[in-house]
Amino acid sequence: MSLSFEGRVVLVTGAGGGLGREYALAFAERGASVVVNDLGADTKGGGKSSAAADKVVEEIRAKGGKAVANYDSVEDGEKLIQSTLDAFGRIDVVVNNAGILRDRSFARTSDLDWDLIQRVHLRGSFLVTRAAWNHMKNQKFGRIIMTASAAGIYGNFGQANYSAAKLGMLGLANTLAIEGRKYNVHCNTIAPVAGSRLTETVMPPDLVASLKPEYVAPLVLWLCHEQCQENGGLFEVGAGWIGKLRWERSQGRTVRQKNQPMTPEVVRDQWDKICDFTDATKPTSVQESLQSIMTVLSQVESGGEVGVNPTAAAASATSASGINPAEAVGQKLPPTTFNFTHTQCILYALGVGMSTRDPDHLRFLYEGHPDFSCLPTFGVIPSQAAMMDGGLTSIPGLNIDFTQVLHGEQYLELYRPLPTSGKLTSETTIADVLDKGSGAVILLDVNTYSGDELVSYNQFTVFVVGAGGFGGKRTSEKAKPSLPPPKRAPDAVVIDSTTRDQAALYRLSGDWNPLHIDPSFAAMGGFKAPILHGLCSFGFAARHVLKHFADNDPSRFKAIKVRFVKPVMPGQSLQTEMWKEGNRIHIQCKVKETDAVVLAGAYVDLHGASEASPESLTQGGGLQSELVFAEIGRRIKDLGSELVKKVNAVFGWEITKDGKSAAQWTIDLKNGSGSLHKGPCSGKADVTFTVSDEDFMEVVMGKLNPQKAFFSGKLKVRGNIMLSQKLEVILKDYAKL
C-alpha cells in the first residue's frame, strides 16, 4: 500500500530549490497540503526574493496539488506557523531544511560569519519548531525533521561555524525526541548528501549532478508518515543509500580507588586500554551513557572492588547469562548492624514532614515527651543497607548493572513498636528472582532484630532495567502483593506540602544518593532538578494514615505496602487518599499540582481499629455508626471544654442492628473537659437515644430528619427530650470530617 499524506499539513523551510523543493513536491504529490517557505536569499544569506517559493507552488498546483508560498525568515518562526494555520488550519510536519554557508578557516571566521550561520540553521530550526510544538502536542501527532551534515558529525576544514550549528541541531533533535515521545511527536535527523546550491560550492560539478535530491526525499517522507515510529534517529542518506548512525564507546578503564589520588600518570599508563574499542558498547541514552560512571561511583564510594572494565560488566548485565535464579535465590547477604539514638528517630520524623506546628507531632520530635516514640516507617532505615551497601555484588547469579536498579515496591511489617535507640541487626535473603521480559525483579527479604527479638520485616522489590529475558518465572507467591483501592470516593484525603529542602533533609537518614541533592547529577539522570526519595513519600503517606485512623498511636501500626510510580519534586504537595476497610487502609498518593499518582496499590494495616467506614463495615458485618462516634471522640479531645460549656449534658446511645442491641455509647459533655466511652453510662444519662445503626447514619448524613425519625418511631428518646436539640452541636459538620 502506498503512503498517503492526505489531510496532513507540511511546512518545508528553504523549499525554493534543491532538497527543499524536492520534499515539497513529493509531499504534495501524495496528498499533503504544503507550505513552501523560502526567503529567496543567496547561499550566503544575502538578498530576498519571492520568486523561488512562488515557482515551486506553481509546480505543485499545476499537478493538482495544494500549496501556498511563505517568504518569511526562519527567525520569524511564529509567523511561519501562523501563516500555515491561516492557510490550512493545522500543522503536522515540519522539515527544517533552510540553510546558508559562510565558509572560512577558523582563524578567519568573523563574528558575523559565526552568528549568521547559528541564527539560520540552529536558532531558525528552534524557533520554527517551537512555534509548532504545542499544536503538535495538543493534536497528539507531529513529525519533525532536522537537517544536519557530515560536517557536523565528523568536522570539515573551513566549516567550524557550519559544523557547530549542524551538530547542535542533532542535540536539539535528540531532546525533542525524548520530550515529544508521549505525545506522538517524533523528531529525527538526516545528514543528506545531495546536489544543491550549498554542496556545489564544495563538490565537483559531475558529482553534484549525480547526487540528486530525489534520492533523499523518500527517507524524509517515510520518517514523517504516521506509520513510522522511528524517533531520535540519525541517518546519512545520498545516491539511493541510507545508513543509520549510532555512538560507540570503548570499554574504558577505572583509574581510581577509594582514598587514593587519581593522577595524570595513572591515566597515561592506562591510555591504550582506555582507547581500545575491542568489544565496544553502543549507548543510546543519557542513562546508558552513565552506566559505567554510576557503577564506578557506587563501588568506589562503598569501598568495594572496582572492576577494570565496568562497562563490560554493565553490558553483560543485560544478557541472559547475567541472571541465574537457581544460584541467587536463597543466598544471604552479609548481616548489617545499625546503631542509633533518639537523634536519628527525630531526624527521620523531620525528614518525612513532621513539624512542631502540629502539637500531635511533638511525641515524635521531642525526646522528653512522656509518649516519645519512633515513627513506624523508620523501620525501613535499619534495613536499607541491603540496597545501598553493595552486598548484592557478592551474590552469585546476580551479574547486574546496579545503575539500572530501580526501587519498585516496598513492604514493611512491625512485630512490636520500634525502640527509640539501640542496636539493630538485619539479615537479608534473596527471596526470589523474576523475569519480566524488559527487566528482572529481585525480591529482598530483610529481617531486623533487637538482640534475639524479631522487630521488623521488610521486602524490597527492585527492578533491574534490561536484565530480563533469562527464561525465569514471572510471578512469585513470596511477593507481598499490591492491591487496588476500592472503586468509590475516598473516606479521607490529606494534603501535605513538602519543602524545597525535603530531600536534603531526608537524605540525612542514610540515603546518600546524589540524585536527590545534586542538580547536575539529577540532570544526567534525565530530571530537571533533584527528586524526592520514594521512601520519603512513603513516610508522608504512612503518617497521614497513622494520624487520621490511629490517633498517632504507633502501637496500632502493623504493616504498609506501596508501589512507587513516579517521582516527586521537593516543594510539591502530596495528596494522600485513604479508604478504610476494616483494619486495612487503602491509600493512593498523588502530586496535588499535577494529579500524577506517585504511590499506588498501597495500603496500611492497623492493629485493633475500632472505627471503620460505613461501606466496609456493612460488608464486614460491623456497625456504620462507629466511625461517627470515633470522630465525636476526636472532636471532644480537641474541643471538649468548649462543648461542655455549650451542651452541659450527658447523652446515652443504644445502637441496634437487626432489632437487637449492638452497641452502647456515653457522651459526657457535663463533667471536666468532656469524654466519650463505649458502654453504658456509669451514672445517669440526661437523655438516652435508641436507634438502629442504619437510621443513625441516615440522621447523621442529613438524609433523615430527627423529628420525623422520632414521630415515626425510628428514634426513641428517654429522659430530657429537649436536650435532643443540642445534638447538632455534637454532630455538626460530620460530612466535612
TrEMBL record:
Keywords from UniProt, A to Z, are: Fatty acid metabolism, Isomerase, Lipid metabolism, Lyase, NAD, Oxidoreductase, Peroxisome
GO MF: 3-hydroxyacyl-CoA dehydratase activity; isomerase activity; oxidoreductase activity
A Gene Ontology biological process in which this protein takes part is:
fatty acid beta-oxidation
State the superkingdom: Eukaryota
Subcellular location(s): the record lists: Peroxisome
UniProt cross-references to Pfam families, sorted A to Z: adh_short, MaoC_dehydratas, MFE-2_hydrat-2_N, SCP2
Q: Where's the Ketoreductase domain?
A: 8-201
- Name by which UniProt lists this protein: Peroxisomal multifunctional enzyme type 2
Q: What is the similarity comment for this entry?
A: Belongs to the short-chain dehydrogenases/reductases (SDR) family.
Which pathway is recorded for this entry? Lipid metabolism; fatty acid beta-oxidation
Chief place of localization? other
InterPro entries the record matches: HotDog_dom_sf, KR_dom, MaoC-like_dom, MFE-2_N, NAD(P)-bd_dom_sf, Peroxisomal_Beta-Oxidation, Sc_DH/Rdtase_CS, SCP2_sterol-bd_dom
**Which Gene3D superfamilies does the record cross-reference, listed alphabetically?**
1.10.287.4290, Hotdog Thioesterase, NAD(P)-binding Rossmann-like Domain, SCP2 sterol-binding domain
One GO CC term of this entry? Answer: peroxisome
